Protein 1
Amino acid sequence: MPSMLPKPLQGFGLTFVQMFKKVTTEQYPEDKRPTAPRYHGRHVLNRHPDGLEKCVGCELCAWACPADAIYVEGGWNTEEERYSPGERYGAVYQINYLRCIFCGLCIEACPTRSLTMSNDYELADDNRQNLIYTKEQLMAPLLPGMEQPPHPMRLGETEQDYYLRADPPAEVDVDAQAVDAVNPDSEVNA
Ligand code: SF4
Ligand code: SF4
């Protein structure tokens, strides 16, 4: 049944009733609420347990990206200067967060599980340049037992030994997952 009150009073009444409802405003950034476990946030480039990079510079992530947000240049490893256990490594790696729509297609395309996504959503800045993340910014931190590349393969002399972790040195923690240090709660990175 339509109200008999004049329209202005109906409007003020609505406002008055809202004053007694539970406030849903979030006090960000003082109060940061946890994201859903599989939230797609900032990317991470992961490492093998000895610190070598998982990225092999194949560019599949860049080709899969619908927003053209990833730029990769592959480089060749040598025995004197090795960054990954394979022939090639990601010499240049950039993600443009002005373009990224956080769809996750790049992490699906990555054949080595080098690229994963964390729950970090704080990606605001006051200039465009700072939102193009470089390889150094995206690399997972070194965990105990890891060594900053370049260095030889520490988990086996051949690629087969390396990937099967046939004879890892005692000081290397083969269960260490670099991404856990960035984002311990993420199931995406499990
Ligand atoms: S999450 Fe989607 S848009 Fe962002 S870099 Fe990956 S593929 Fe591109
Ligand atoms: S992150 Fe993965 S898909 Fe992208 S270049 Fe490196 S290995 Fe290839």
Protein 2
Amino acid sequence: MAGAVKTPRPLRLTVNGHTAMLDVPGETALLHVLRNDLALNGPKYGCGLGECGACAVLIDGRAVRSCVVPVEAVEDRTIVTIEGLAAEGLHPVQQAFVESQAAQCGYCLNGMIVAVTALLNRNRQPGEAEIRSALAHQLCRCGTHMEILAATRRAVELSASDVAVAEENCP
Ligand code: FES
Ligand code: FES
């Protein structure tokens, strides 16, 4: 980055359970560090202005637009990208999007899946209004919104059955 000032010390970033020490300017957008320094290309560059949601990641379980977050602001936070969701096989939200074939070009899906995961983190059984509210500012230029809503309803079902299985297996 031309004219950028390097931090006086490496920044410590914990992403998908791995900690990395990074010699990057602290004001660099988290999105660029994820993609350029950590080879995590799931989060996408859409608008670069915090408007479209394509770059979303989970920070401490909440959906955050990584194109407008300086990397120095998220040291010592727990960052999970869409790659981290699939660490032990497909996450129920990813499974729901596959089952529902909720994609055209797929460019928006990182943000959609991260937003739905964050929604389920705060409410395992969201109603229709809460689902629509969670996705209201996630843009899809292909007009796949109906399929994405269907996938989200399926994610709610899969997530509920995961909880039920976990409870059955409790000693
Ligand atoms: S690229 Fe981050 S919100 Fe659009
Ligand atoms: S599927 Fe193309 S932008 Fe959403």
